[in-house]
Model the fold of this input.
Amino acid sequence: MNIEEVREYALSLPGTTEDQAYGEDWVLFRIEGKIFLHIWLDAPEPSCALKLPPEQGQTLRDHYDGIRPAYHLNKVHWSDVLLDEIDGDMVKDLIRQSYQLVLSKLPKRLREKYRIEP
Done:
């Protein structure tokens, strides 16, 4: 997967918005204002940062060289996924998991607006 494919997939998830923050070289993807995906356009390697449950993030980092603690974010909750090293289907799955994790923390009335099938 490349950065544009990550962007297209993230925007395909219901209610996703895209904006820039921290300067022009960061693109953020949100659900109801809550961030679930960061893309640092000036990263040394094509990557994206995803929010994952701490234990899952650590397990993935232990098993995949292409998944690391997020460079600019809370390393307990955020992981960088190197797009050249991780299979595209797995990247999509991790994006969806990040989206669903953030969605699960929203109030019930908002969660029900964005119910998606696994």
